[in-house]
Amino acid sequence: MYRMTLPLIATHYLDSTNQWDTVGMERRNDAINHISTGYQGQLKYRKTDGSYAIYIETASSTWLTAYVAKVFAMANNLVSIEENVICSALKWLVLHKQLPDGSFKEDSAVISRGMVGGVQGNDADASLTAFVVIAMQEASKICAESVGSLPESIRKAVVFLEGRFPQLTNPYAVAMTSYAMANANKLNKGILMRHSTQKEAGRSWTVPGQHHHSLEATAYAVLALVKDKDFDKAGEAVHWLNRQQTHYGAYGTTQATIMVFQAVAEYRTQVKDRQNFNLDVELSVAGRSTPVKWAIRRENAHLTRSDRVNINQDFNVTAKGTGKAILSVLTLYYARPVEKKSDCTFFDLTVKMEKDNEGAIASYNFTMDFFYKDDKTDATMTILDIGLPTGFEVEESDLKEVLETERIVFRMHQMHNVGQLQPAAVTIYEYYSPGELFNDLCTINTAVAATAKPVIMSVLTSLFCCFSLQYIFGEHTWIEYWPTRAESQTPEHRERYIGITDLQNSLSNYGCAT
């Protein structure tokens, strides 16, 4: 689902803020194609009653069904989506998951934190109900006629949330419930603001120890305040959200990303005619005779300005006029890697290979021990990706006998001699958190004397998290120049930049096809 969500929210944001010129108008068609492909892929998990589950053979999930309905409703004006696909999901929620008191129940929870966000935290009954109600509210224009009970279902849920609202203690639940109630014109802004934190960086709804949940909560609060036309308070929260964004535009988890972009897009759409931007910014760099000047006005306030300064140069930024802007400084430098234990918080992985005699050129017992370290959630869908050195085959009968959940043992036979063996990677990660991975590289030392000494197996431990890469060069490797974003504006580099960037996005979203 996330493969559809990310291009969808990016398209929604760029459409709402008129910023396609900053990334290239031609890329909108690529985004639409990804959304359409993601939609078709998600339909494989749709059941005959309109609900959805992580696996088609498992029980349907209340949260996932509501989430799919929300995303499909958002994509409805971008790609061709059957109305019944959206509305049957809402009908299933009304008929099968709403309790007499108006709340919604979950019988098959999606455990992945990165996917569901903070719905399963404290005050989960209110959070889940608010999440479902928001999905219904955002899809109500599409399904009001085909799902006749939808307005009454929303009303009952809002009444439940009104009763629970004064008792809530979790800022996440407070913010999400506030948005659902604001959509029904029943926002209690006093309670919402009491759970916020005001600092120099802006206003936020902070969930202790859960930064991504704080991002989500603050985004829901922005949507509620914008709905209430309190653009000053919403602006304080948007200011905080903007300062949490990385230099590469990311917010972390899928839920944090989709909610932050939805909230900021809604805020900028509503306030663009109310802002008085007349800001002049000047960047002076030591050694340069002429400063860089930027004139920020209402019509171009959404554009990002950038310049490159050498690390040994002093610079000074001055601004005058009316308006707000955020200055970010990204420092790039070379540093020697420091050997340390894995940064990965989810998994530990140990790989061991022992020489065996099975009649092949060489045979080994391949043993992997692994366990999930996070004590707050369970690993729902763990992927173990095992690469084989060139010329090796696996004893398939061993794989069929694998029964242990935290150890895999099988034999591997070298069937062909290879002049220069490349390392083979063994990677473990959770499907919905691909950035949190643990990777070991296994290499064979081929510089062995022609005596009866055993072949030496060595494990080069390279601990990767967040897509840190190690590059292995061979006879089929070549190097391409990757133009910078600034160089992409020139005819000489534009086509190459677009091509490589498209390849990067494709690999990030869908992986390697071979």
UniProtKB/TrEMBL annotation:
Gene3D superfamilies named among the record's database cross-references: 1.50.10.20, 2.40.50.120, 2.60.120.1540, Alpha-macroglobulin, receptor-binding domain
Domain Alpha-macroglobulin receptor-binding, residue spans: 379-438
Superkingdom as given in the UniProt entry: Eukaryota
Entry GO CC: extracellular space
Pfam family for this entry, one: TED_complement
CDD domains documented for this protein: complement_C3_C4_C5 (cd02896)
Protein name: Complement C3-like
Organism: Sinocyclocheilus grahami
